[in-house]
């Protein structure tokens, strides 16, 4: 495994590209146009420089990571020579399936195709390709450069070999992998969505302020971040899509909080928009 392609240069895509590059992989980061990719490059360059300045990266590793990173608008050019492709686009199944169909035609037959999804089915995605045994989900966590976990989700047809290769990639990236048999929401998203949704319901009901709900969870249950702050970081639009999918597949207990729906309609989608449950400058 030498070359990895990341499709999508949003928050997660940028983080995965950074983590792959500092781990020694040649990386191609792909997105829709040059403007988007230039913004992604600026963010990654800044993170690399800060990591070097703070001593997290040695000079040699810093230089190698910069050399490893490539930015490519054309999907075929970005993915044709890669041994692993990680898709990191919106949590919309039709968008993901469309990308996987294209990748299936572009990539070599032994290339592993992975989706960085927090809820969607690698079985459903893999069934739309000619290589369901080589389709898997790798669920990274935000911020990727700090979070140690990767959920490795095996679809119905995913081979043992594919799982082991992806686990080896996770180890090289200095991540801990947990193997999960596919079920909607996997492990962490099911728990996160329930906790976050209940926190939103409590805020809507006037039980406590956002600050005090989060403080209670951090100081009382030792969570590193409160559930409302975490939802803002993830993006309330992303959280709503996850909740809608879990509600559709797992039932009533995942019904999205009305306050979440209202915030998304208002454009208050969290840290990336400047406001969510908190205000950001």
TrEMBL record:
<dbReference type="Pfam" id="PF02737">
    <property type="entry name" value="3HCDH_N"/>
</dbReference>
<dbReference type="Pfam" id="PF00725">
    <property type="entry name" value="3HCDH"/>
</dbReference>
<protein>
    <submittedName>
        <fullName>3-hydroxyacyl-CoA dehydrogenase</fullName>
    </submittedName>
</protein>
<dbReference type="InterPro" id="IPR006176">
    <property type="entry name" value="3-OHacyl-CoA_DH_NAD-bd"/>
</dbReference>
<dbReference type="InterPro" id="IPR006108">
    <property type="entry name" value="3HC_DH_C"/>
</dbReference>
<feature type="domain" description="3-hydroxyacyl-CoA dehydrogenase C-terminal">
    <location>
        <begin position="185"/>
        <end position="280"/>
    </location>
</feature>
<feature type="domain" description="3-hydroxyacyl-CoA dehydrogenase NAD binding">
    <location>
        <begin position="3"/>
        <end position="182"/>
    </location>
</feature>
<keyword id="KW-0560">Oxidoreductase</keyword>
<comment type="similarity">
    <text>Belongs to the 3-hydroxyacyl-CoA dehydrogenase family.</text>
</comment>
<dbReference type="InterPro" id="IPR036291">
    <property type="entry name" value="NAD(P)-bd_dom_sf"/>
</dbReference>
<dbReference type="InterPro" id="IPR022694">
    <property type="entry name" value="3-OHacyl-CoA_DH"/>
</dbReference>
<dbReference type="InterPro" id="IPR013328">
    <property type="entry name" value="6PGD_dom2"/>
</dbReference>
<dbReference type="InterPro" id="IPR008927">
    <property type="entry name" value="6-PGluconate_DH-like_C_sf"/>
</dbReference>
<comment type="pathway">
    <text>Lipid metabolism; butanoate metabolism.</text>
</comment>
């Amino acid at each position: 495994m030498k070359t990895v392609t990341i499709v999508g240069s949003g928050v997660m895509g940028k983080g995965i590209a950074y983590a792959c590059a500092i781990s020694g992989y040649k990386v191609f980061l792909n997105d829709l146009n040059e403007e988007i990719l230039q913004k992604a490059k600026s963010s990654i360059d800044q993170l690399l420089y800060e990591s070097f300045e703070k001593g997290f990266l040695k000079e040699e590793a810093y230089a190698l990571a910069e050399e490893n990173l490539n930015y490519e608008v054309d999907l075929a050019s970005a993915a044709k020579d890669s041994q692993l492709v990680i898709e990191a686009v919106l949590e919309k199944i039709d968008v993901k399936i469309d990308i996987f169909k294209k990748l299936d035609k572009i990539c070599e037959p032994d290339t592993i195709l992975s989706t960085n999804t927090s809820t969607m089915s690698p079985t459903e995605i893999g069934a739309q390709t000619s290589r369901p045994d080589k389709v898997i989900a790798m669920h990274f966590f935000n911020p990727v450069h700090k979070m140690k976990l990767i959920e490795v989700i095996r679809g119905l047809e995913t081979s043992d070999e594919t799982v082991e290769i992806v686990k080896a990639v996770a180890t090289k990236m200095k991540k801990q992998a947990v193997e999960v048999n596919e079920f909607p929401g996997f492990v962490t998203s099911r728990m996160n969505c329930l906790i976050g949704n209940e926190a939103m319901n409590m805020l809507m009901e006037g039980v406590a302020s956002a600050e005090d709900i989060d403080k209670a969870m951090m100081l009382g249950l030792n969570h590193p971040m409160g559930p409302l702050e975490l939802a803002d970081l993830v993006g309330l639009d992303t959280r709503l899509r996850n909740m809608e999918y879990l509600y559709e597949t797992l039932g009533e207990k995942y019904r999205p909080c009305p306050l979440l729906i209202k915030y998304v309609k208002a454009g208050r989608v969290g840290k990336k928009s400047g406001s969510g449950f908190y205000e950001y400058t």
